[in-house]
Amino acid sequence: MKITRSSLKRTFSFSWRDLLVSAAILLCATGACALLHQTADTIDGFASPVYVLAVLLISRFTSGYLFGLIAAVLGVIGVNYVFTYPYMAFNFTISGYPLTMFTFLVVSLVTSTLTTKTKEQDRLRMENEKVKMRADLLRSVSHDIRTPLTSIMGATSAILENPALSPAEQQSLLVDVRDDAQWLIRVVENLLSITRIGNESAKITKEPEAAEEVLDEAVRKFRKRFPAVSVEVHVPDELLLVPMDAILIMQVLSNLMENAVFHGGTTTHIALSAQRDGPWARFYVQDNGQGIPPQKLHTLFSGALRCEDSSPGDGKRNMGLGLSVCMAIIRAHGGTLEAKNLESGAEFSFCLPLTKEEVS
């Protein structure tokens, strides 16, 4: 693997936080050894594993190799000078003692190196997953945007180039243009949410919101687009306040309801509900459509799912983007999202954590 200046800087980077963490762990290790020294006749042999554990913890909770290596050296010095006979003095003349100290140093260095290397591999794996997710998202969005734009261009060109079209024909084309424009708006909203959540400097601001109001607002917007689909809402009698970013959660509900219409095939009714479930608030979106193909359930939120009955150019049939956005939003809230088939239709449910006050 090629070593760059940036990777070298990250490997041996210094931060005051890491320094404080390292100092605290070493002080705890020293205190533990001092306590053993007072309660036992000798602590020879006990101090080494304590400091090896300290080196492992420092390597785990600090960045790069720097503090893990420093802790390994300081651990050897501490064991040699403070907690090994003759105490408070260096003595390398005792039989077997140099080999013991060398072994302890090697074990500490290896522990530090392996722990830090494992962390680095986890970081690289997460970065690769982010790159893959962005690539999948880009491919999905490119398809979703190109198809409606092509349809809009075709419909508007037909209207402009054929003045002899009847009002009914023009009305039909304009309805198609409006529907495609609404779909593009939804794609852009999903993209903005993904960008907002994916930005490490951005934080989701959660405020206590009444579950009933969030559901009602999501249903109100949904009915404007799909007046033919009946929607019923069930909420608990008592006020259920849920910490959330209301705009993002309404987008989750909108995505799930729209998917029920676009991909349920025969969906004519949707039921929304919310209830308290221990330390969680659980939301349900149920429909009476055709359900989800069982073989698709394990890839439902991967961002790459397309219905089998969609044509290659039908961007509106892509539900992968909307569901992957839903999963990202719910995870950002510290919750979970699940899907399953019912006897008639499908059910999506997600949980959001409640505050201690709401749980009690």
Automatic annotation (TrEMBL):
- Entry-linked SMART domains: HATPase_c, HisKA
Pfam families, per the entry: DUF4118, HATPase_c, HisKA
Q: Which CDD domains does the UniProt entry name for this protein? A: HATPase (cd00075), HisKA (cd00082)
Q: How does it sit in the membrane?
A: Multi-pass membrane protein
Q: Which residues cross the membrane?
A: 50-83, 95-114
Q: GO MF annotations for this entry?
A: ATP binding; phosphorelay sensor kinase activity
The organism's superkingdom is given as: Bacteria
Residue ranges occupied by any Histidine kinase domain in the UniProt entry: 140-356
Report the locations given in the UniProt record: Membrane
Q: Record's Gene Ontology CC terms?
A: plasma membrane
Q: Known EC number(s)?
A: 2.7.13.3
What SUPFAM superfamilies does the annotation carry? Answer: ATPase domain of HSP90 chaperone/DNA topoisomerase II/histidine kinase (SSF55874), Homodimeric domain of signal transducing histidine kinase (SSF47384)
Top-rank EC class of the record's enzyme: transferase
Is ATP-binding given among the entry's keywords? Answer: yes
Q: Which terms are listed as keywords in the entry? A: ATP-binding, Kinase, Membrane, Nucleotide-binding, Phosphoprotein, Transferase, Transmembrane, Transmembrane helix, Two-component regulatory system
The name under which this protein is listed is histidine kinase
Q: Origin organism of this chain?
A: Dysosmobacter welbionis
